[in-house]
Design brief:
54% helix; mainly alpha
Length: 166
């Protein structure tokens, strides 16, 4: 009779190599930079069905030019710069959290106001929510202080009781 090995149980998300890699601060910052670059490309290609389609009309109004002013470019540069040393530039994650929350609120607002269709805001809301969640988890995950060694386990022979017996 053939013996079959039982399938390995699924790993919890914290131990899954994909999620572990995805939650690394440098990876999160690079993903934020890529999303910001896509945002800048969206503002550049205004006659594309993939990015923004003005349907042959112009964006008008006294401050209409501000709507497509490529403000995502400095954010992409900032995220890439900070990805070099995420520990040193830890505060950039607060900016990223605010940016993703603002993107979600702005898309929901413009969808509700009838400025955009649901299919125009669905992907930006999903991506901003996913990136916001990664940033949130990074900001609020419990961390061990750097440079501090964990206390010895009982019975390891290290500690005050072991040193007194010497």
């Amino acid at each position: 009779m053939e013996e079959t090995t039982p399938a390995a149980p699924p790993q919890p998300p914290a131990e899954n190599p994909f999620w572990t890699t995805l939650r690394q601060p440098r990876v999160v910052l690079i993903l934020l930079a890529v999303w910001a670059i896509i945002g800048a490309l969206t503002e550049f290609f205004t006659s594309s069905g993939l990015f923004v389609d003005l349907h042959g009309r112009e964006l008008d109004g006294a401050l209409g030019g501000r709507a497509l002013s490529w403000e995502a470019i400095p954010l992409a540069v900032l995220y890439l710069y900070c990805s070099r040393d995420p520990v040193r530039y830890q505060r950039v994650f607060w900016l990223a959290l605010i940016e993703q929350a603002a993107a979600i609120v702005a898309n929901v607002y413009h969808w509700g106001a009838g400025d955009f269709s649901f299919e125009s805001v669905f992907i930006p809301i999903v991506v901003a929510t996913a990136l916001g969640l990664l940033v949130f988890l990074h900001l609020f995950q419990p961390r061990e202080p750097e440079g501090v060694t964990p206390p010895p386990s009982p019975g390891s022979g290290i500690g005050p009781a072991a040193s007194e017996s010497l």
